[in-house]
Amino acid sequence: MVDIGGPVAEGYYSDSTRTYVLGAPSEPDVLATYQVLQRAQQAAVDIVRPGVTAQTVDDTARRIIADAGFGDYFIHRTGHGIGLDVHEEPYILAGNTLPLEPGMTFSVEPGIYLPGRWVPGSRTSWWSPITASPR
User: Fold this and answer.
1) End-to-end alpha-carbon separation of the chain, Å?
2) pTM score > 0.90 for this model?
3) Local confidence band at 118 (pLDDT 50, 70, 90 cut-offs)
4) What is the Cα–Cα distance from 79 to 107, expressed in whole angstroms?
5) 17 and 25 in contact (C-beta within 8 Å)?
6) Beta-ladder partners of 15
7) Using one digit for the tens of pLDDT, what is the confidence trace for 23-34?
8) Which of 61, 57, 60 lies closest to 104, judged by CA?
């Protein structure tokens, strides 16, 4: 897992996480686990639109991961705002009833963290600029 980012032009920040496998995975469940993560991320991205709460985006990803049996291993928020700081509102987590608005940019990066397994965590990032146009 590679987690990179930092300040870029004009005072804004970047943040990107990617998971790589070199060769064939040594454990048979790596691909299946990663596919759960990808489904959770895509479902969360698909629900993003103005008026949806940050909590709803988190709940969407979390439900898919929990239904696949990995709920105890999703131990952080689903995402965070990124802009003038690398971690800022909107925080995409349970309890945040903030409605998403046009202009907000944030990550959608659910994770499955299996201690002592193939990686300490597996997450991908999706930048979700909210637009005024409906999806």
Assistant:
1) 31
2) no
3) low
4) 5
5) no
6) 5
7) 887 778 888 888
8) 57
